[in-house]
Amino acid sequence: MAEGYSYPVLVEFEKTNSSRLKNKLIKYFQSKKSNGGDCEVEYEPIKPSGFRLFSPSDQKNVLTKQDHQINLDEGVLKMTVRLPSGQRVSAKVYYGTCLAKWEALYLSLAISSTIGIIIPVIIKRLMTHQQML
């Protein structure tokens, strides 16, 4: 694999006999349909496939999308995507997102001047922050 592709995603699907599956996987995960981007695909018919994306935000976007499927001659192939065992979403994406949320929370707290306003703001922000992760 090329060095620039360092954000892995594991793709799981039912066994298929499609001879063009690797090309279809590449096209799909590079398209807007998958929320993906520039990637390389490792495909072996006997085990789950993997691919690596060029950017951490593409990895996060692919993992966030609920339904992944491609059309084959035999019908629709539904896929499940996840991080490989022991992998985590890029810390750069995760912490960048968290930092922006906490900066917004700090700013809103600095503007608020009474405890009666601050506590509901904190609760609301924390609940919103947890839902977005």
Automatic annotation (TrEMBL):
Keywords associated with the record: Membrane, Transmembrane, Transmembrane helix
PAR14-like first RRM domain span: 9-82
InterPro entries xref list: Nucleotide-bd_a/b_plait_sf, PARP14_RPM_1
Name of a matching Pfam family: RRM_PARP14_1
Transmembrane intervals: 104-123
Domain of life, per lineage: Eukaryota
Keyword Glycoprotein in annotation: no
Gene3D superfamilies per record: 3.30.70.330
Name of protein: PAR14-like first RRM domain-containing protein
Organism listed in the record: Cyprinodon variegatus (Sheepshead minnow)
